[in-house]
Amino acid sequence: GWLDDQGHPIGIVSVTTRLRAEGDIALVGGAVEVARLAGEGVSKDEALHHADLVLDASRRRSVIAEAGTIIQAARSGDVGAAVEAGTATMMELQAPVHDGVFTAKESGQQVFASVEATREGGGLAHLGLKTGVRAYDRRANHGLGILPGNAMFLAARSGIGKTAFALDLIADATIGVGEKPPAARTDYITLEMSHAELTMRALSRRSGLLLADIIRGDLDDERLSMLLEAACWWATTGVRIVDKSGFTPQDLGSHIWKAARQGVEFFVVDHMHEMTRGEGQGRLSDNEFYGRVAKMLKALAKRLGVRVLCLAQCNREAEGVKPQLSHLRGSGGIEEAADMVTFLHRDRTQPITQIICSKNRNGMAGDDTMFFDGSIQRFRELTPQEVAMMADKDGGSAWPV
Question: What predicted TM-score, i.e. pTM, was given to this entire model?
Answer without folding.
Answer: 0.72
